[in-house]
Amino acid sequence: MKLYRRQGRMLVEDKGQYYAVDESLDALIALEEMYLRLQSIVSSGPPLGPAAPLIFEAPIEHQEVWAAGVTYYRSRSARIEESRDAGGGDFYDRVYFAERPELFFKAVAHKVAGPDGKVRIRSDAKWSVPEPELALLINPSGRIVGYTIGNDMSSRDIEGENPLYLPQAKVYDQSCALGPGILIQPDPLPSSTRIRMEILRSGIVEFSGSTTLTEMKRDPPVLVEYLFRDHSFPFGCFLLTGTGIVPPDNFSLRSGDEVHISIDGIGTLMNEVA
Question: Fewer Cβ atoms within 10 A, N terminus or C terminus of the chain?
Fold first, then answer.
């Protein structure tokens, strides 16, 4: 089953049919048996009737979005290279091999773009890239209850200049995208789950790459456990789990580019660069 947000209301989709959900996403996440509640909605029916193609919003309400960094070897290598001149490469190497993960705040709802919405590059950045990531939906008690696609927009030149500039490189209006929907299932995603990204410029593929969850060094439950240390999330939260797909160093996003991110079992998130 998948959860979608449309016109401020939640829908649950099962086998191609959509069903109205009375509860908000905030209220659903608060339910310890959210999966059973959605099953009951589907089983009691009826589905919504035929309609024009549905336009969905970012599936977020009052959840915070957090992110984990340097969870893939490819990301470690890129961070070391971009910060080499500033002498910060050692930081990222140490994070990759450390027990404690890198975690940072990413966005609140009004800074998040939805499917087919626009993401942004910073006006003072010269080297910007999208970071395709598996996003975890976590309930207030710290349990992973769903999965969606995240785009962690990043200004590599700003972070590379000094690791302490990471919040400016990562956190700004429409620096994050989520969607199109949330896969709700009680079991973890298989490690073979593939993440793919294509960047189109004037309709032509400028970059493409893929990875699998097998390449992730840190297990999602471990990332969640660290995030919830001395932190409370009354409405739950999203956690971006890092990227294993990094465009080459001579690539930077431009206005008008399209970023397509696909994850097996979840779907495709498409955003245009504003």
Answer: C
